[in-house]
Amino acid sequence: MKSKLTSAVTRFFCIIILLMGISLPPGNAAVKGHIDFSDHSIQTGQNATLDGYWEFYWKQFLTPSDFQGTKRPEKSGYIKLPGPWNLVTLKGKKLSPLGYATFRTVLHLHKDDINSLVSLDMPFVHSAYSLWINGRIVASNGQPGTSRNEMIPFQVPRIVTFYTHSTEIEVILHISNFHQRSGGIQKHIRIGNAARMNRNRDIRLAILLLAIGCIIIIAIFHFSTAIFRPEDTSNLYFGAFSLTLVLRLLLTSEKLLVRFIPELPWALCFRLEYLTITSTLIFFMLFIQSRHKEEISPRPVKIIITIQLILSAFAVFAPVLMVSKNLMIFTIVLVCAIIYILYSIIKIAWKDRKWAPLYILGVVAFFGAIINDILVSQRPVQGIYIFSIGFLIFVITQSIISLQQSIEEQNRLVILDKELEISGKLQRSILPASIPEIPGIDFQIRYLPAHDIGGDFYHFHVTDNNKVGIILADVTGHGIPASLIASMVKIAFSQQEQYSTSPALLLVKMNEVLFKQVGGQYVTALYMHIDLETRKLKIARAGHLPAILLRGEEIKELWSEGRLLGSFPEINCNEIEVDLQSKDRILLYTDGITERRQNEQFMGTAGLISILEQANNRDAAGMADEIILKTSEWPTAEKNHDDDTTLILLEIA
Fold first, then answer.
1. Nearest to 152 by CA among 161, 142, 160
2. 332 and 242 part of one domain
3. Is there a domain that residue 326 lies in?
4. What is the pLDDT of residues 165-206, one digit of tens each?
5. pLDDT over 80 at 616, yes or no
6. CA 321, CA 337: separation in Å to the nearest integer?
7. pLDDT of 22 higher than 80
8. Are 542 and 503 a contacting pair, CB within 8 Å?
9. Which domain holds residue 458?
10. Does the structure show a pLDDT above 80 at 461?
């Protein structure tokens, strides 16, 4: 099912990518300042472009009145549109990108186009213009001027609609540029039926807004995922990457941000446009490196990010004209990064990752769109700008991958929850179902696993109403592994019932069973045997914390030597014997109590003894509850504590 989904999505986006490469239909070319549309109507036919050779008047601002009468201004030559004027050669020298000029052409319309509404789709030019049609100013962007101080740059595409009164339409443009690396008209000017032109513009805006909306939703999805899964930083980086690209879409193409906020300074928008190039690449490199740590080496990522940070500072602090002139540096770094990313993607595909085809498709669509737009903007090829479509394909493919991964992760968690539930039942089954009722002994047991399942284990060997053996063991770690080893400890303990009256021997025999069976983890244990007839307590330890004897005001640790269980082929355990008195209390506990800490200071045995001293006047149940309560009151205990807690308190009648 997954492979079919991947295949279907891949085929769909491949068709989209092929459609993205469709070039614009050619219009009637301008020849020596005249464009002939007399053979077909632009009202009923397709929209056309005003490409071709326009009259060009360098460093002159000429008005329609200058072209009346028999004496006409001297032309500097003809300039091919679209294209920057700094590629034009006059008197053996290429023109400077900084300057101003007049562009003029005459449109010859079909007779059916007389007395009709016609629209021009005017792109933004570098860097300000005024437009005359048949002797009237009908549109402007910024304020063209003969010097940097006189002109005001402004760049927003717009639809200009006018009424035709004859078959000849004179079009004059004043354009000036003192701010960017190239000047003039570098995008197609289109002409066509007013209603159709506006409809096409609305469709472009709708597609762009749809793409922006989809990307914002996807960014919110990834940011939300990052909040709930902070360990996976790829979602955070991809969300930031998406929002950066949204800003770029708002700044380029239809210039939506400037449409919404026309008061924005042109220089600020220009710098932001360049910053979106660097920040987009930074976030994308962080994203792909965090998503594919094995395939993406951190060193080239750091190099690319460092270069982008330097270029970002350059875009912010350098003069606007200097930034514009160095666009090629930005482009070269971007292309190098694309080559490295594609190389890395090939490595991912070579390893036959499940989602590699879809991932490669998204990356190819995204960077293919970037390269296409660079080529179109630099004029090596004719075509349309497809960045928003390429990026939308990329974020959709990435979101499909992320969604599927989230679903798979959720499925794994469901399976893990079931396994934990089974392990929890197993853990509860190895503990005694009830506390033995021995006349003369009050048992108080508190067991608090750090997780649903833990590694602490306790049990009893009851010989008769006067004799009982008690074991308390602690397996390192917690969770399923600790639970499984605790089950092995129970098996080893249940097999040693014949040694229940000899604590040291019982632990030695348990070690023989557990040796090399605990998978590198260790087990501490303490076993004691109480004989109420003789009033004797015998106790032995295997690396466990010593039991504590409370007798009146006296509190004493019962120390004996003994190695851990399961780590050595043979161990020796010393056994001590204590004569019991009425009202004696014996406390067995695990390190889940003493290893609680506050500001890196452990509670320790001293802290436990302090609690026992404060609770000494309470009955056995009250003392057990007080120990649990006091240890849980440590301010940072909940954050730092990650171990099971078990205590067994016995009071002798």
1. 142
2. yes
3. yes
4. 899 999 999 999 999 999 999 888 999 999 999 998 998 899
5. yes
6. 25
7. no
8. no
9. 434-652
10. yes
Contact 177, 129 (CB under 8 A): no
Same domain, 486 and 633: yes
Domain co-membership, 244 together with 270: yes
* Helix residue spans in 91-233 (DSSP H): 194-228
Q: Is residue 479 located within the same domain as residue 350?
A: no
Residue 88's domain is classified under what CATH number? 2.60.120.260
Which tokens belong to 531? 């004989």
- Same domain for 182 and 216: no
Q: For 607, phi and psi rounded to 5 degrees?
A: -65, -40
- The reported pLDDT for the residue numbered 555 is 93
Instruction: List the structure tokens of 197.
Output: 């032109």
Please say if the pLDDT value at position 424 is more than 90: no
Per DSSP, the three-state class of 376 is: helix
Residues 6+ apart with CB under 8 A from 54: 30, 33, 78, 79, 80, 81, 103, 104, 105
pLDDT at 236: 93
**Token pair of 624, please?**
């057990």
Phi, psi (rounded to 5 degrees) for 448: -130, 95
Residue at which a domain ends, from 120, 153, 187: 187
pLDDT of residue 166: 92
Domain termination residue (choose one: 409, 425, 454) = 409
- Tell me the C-alpha distance between 470 and 646, whole Å: 13
Give the domain CATH number at 644: 3.60.40.10
Residue 370 pLDDT greater than 60, yes or no: yes
Identify the top-confidence range among 126-130, 186-190, 250-254. 126-130
**138 and 11 in a common domain:** no
- pLDDT band with cut points at 50, 70 and 90 for residue 8: very low
Q: What pLDDT is attached to residue 647?
A: 93
Tell me which H or E stretch contains 493: helix 479-494
Q: How many domains does the chain have?
A: 3
CATH number reported for the structural domain that contains residue 246 in this entry:
1.20.1070
Spatial CA neighbour of 478 closest among 590, 594, 320? 590
Q: Is residue 635 part of a domain?
A: yes
Residue with tokens 């849980």: 632
- Please report which confidence band the pLDDT of residue 24 belongs to, taking 50, 70 and 90 as the band edges: very low
Confidence of residue 427 (pLDDT cuts 50, 70, 90): low
Closest-CA residue to 280 (of 333, 231, 320, 232) = 333
Distance CA 473, CA 490 (A): 9
508 and 563 inside one domain: yes
More confident residue, 631 or 199: 199
Helices (H) and strands (E) in the chain, counts: 16, 27
pLDDT higher than 80, residue 330: yes
Residue 636 has pLDDT above 60, yes or no: no
Q: What is the CA radius of gyration of the chain?
A: 41
pTM: 0.65
Does 11 have pLDDT greater than 80?
Answer: no
For residues 249 and 167, membership in a common domain is answered with no
How many residues are given for the chain?
653
Q: Is residue 421 part of a domain?
A: no
Which tokens sit at 649? 């308190």
* Long-range contacts of 85-92, Cβ-Cβ distance < 8 Å, separation of 24 or more: 85/56, 85/58, 85/182, 85/183, 85/184, 86/182, 86/183, 86/184, 88/56, 88/58, 90/58
- Cα separation, 108 vs 78, whole angstroms: 18
In-domain check, residue 118: yes
H-helix or E-strand spanning residue 46: none
